[in-house]
Amino acid sequence: MDKYDVISVVPYRCGECPMWDADNQLFLWSDMLAGELFEYDPATGKVRRFAEGKNVSGFALNSKGGLVCATHQGLYLWNEKGGWTLVATEFAGQALHSNDAVADPQGRFIFGTTFYDQTVGDNFERGRLYSVEKHGEIAIIAEGLGLSNGIGFSPDTKIMYVTDTYTREIFQYDYDAESGKATNRRVFVKIPDTEGIPDGMTVDADGYVWSAQWYGYCVVRYDPDGKVERRLHVPSGQTSSVMFGGKDFTDIYVTTAAEVVRLSAAPKGYDFDAPHNGSVYRFNLGIRGLEEYKANISL
Fold first, then answer.
1. pLDDT tens digits, 1-51
2. Separation between Cα atoms, residue 257 and residue 40, nearest integer Å
3. DSSP letters for 174-200
4. Of the candidates 79, 119, 137, 263, which lies 20 to 30 Å from 105 by C-alpha distance?
């Protein structure tokens, strides 16, 4: 079993959207359900809550300072001095009830929406994937997502990966970073219903995709052809997301959730009553990740 450190044993209700701040050498994440944002300083081992008030499900560092945040309440900017600044709560007739997010190579902020309700089967409003330009202009770049989740780019930025937790699929799109257009959607991997459901993700320097498996007790590493290369065991069933960090980007940070979510999509026999600690973990396998792109958004 791979060795790990527990960087915070607090039972976060739903640890999410891990992010490495290379400029300040800090690890950031949210407790999405509690509406709080945290930072961990590896130099001191201390954890600090630095913001609260929105249910942040995805964010990117903003080159203008602060963060660009996708939340359950809409799209916001945040900085230490000014707090929260609203960008939009809806677009083209759809509420921006958002989930995961990422910045692209040109500084656009890309995020997905979700309206998944397991009680109504396939009869629900489908979410979209949105792109935000530097002055807050919003555009739809993909539609028809059940539960939009982890997003990432291949090292050459020509492929964008988008997770749909509802369909148990990670999609590939051809991505034009210059125009921000996503085309030619196809299935990269389809996760069997005997496994957990795909959640947050990232891509390493070799182009391998790392996908956290909620209900899976693991993060799965897929090669560029979609074949499973390894499974990183995580001692908490609701493994929510994964991100590289550290000075050389070989630390692997993993978030989990303590508040049990009972979905019918769980694999048969999943033990909802087992401990779900909500801790944050750090592994190091000697595999190098990539620094995430910064957004470039100002109103």
1. 789 999 999 999 999 999 999 999 999 999 999 999 999 999 999 999 999
2. 17
3. EEETTTTEEEEEEEEEE--TTS-EEEE
4. 79
Q: Which residues on adjacent β-strands are paired with residue 259?
A: none
pLDDT (tens digit per residue) in 186-233? 999 999 999 999 999 999 999 999 999 999 999 999 999 999 999 999
Rounded Cα distance between 70 and 56, Å, is 6
User: Looking at the domain assignment, is residue 97 inside a domain?
Assistant: yes
- State the burial class of residue 76 (Cβ atoms within 10 Å of its Cβ: 0-12, 13-18, 19+): buried
Token pair recorded at residue 235: 């001692």
DSSP state of 126: P
Q: Would you say 112 and 166 are in contact if contact means Cβ atoms under 8 Å apart? A: no
Kindly state whether residue 290 falls inside one of the protein's structural domains: no
Q: Of 31, 100, 199, 204, which is the active-site residue? A: 199
Instruction: Tell me, yes or no, if 199 is annotated catalytic.
Output: yes
List CB contacts of 34: < 8 A, sequence separation 6 or more.
12, 13, 14, 52
Contact 30, 53 (CB under 8 A): no
CATH number for position 42 = 2.120.10.30
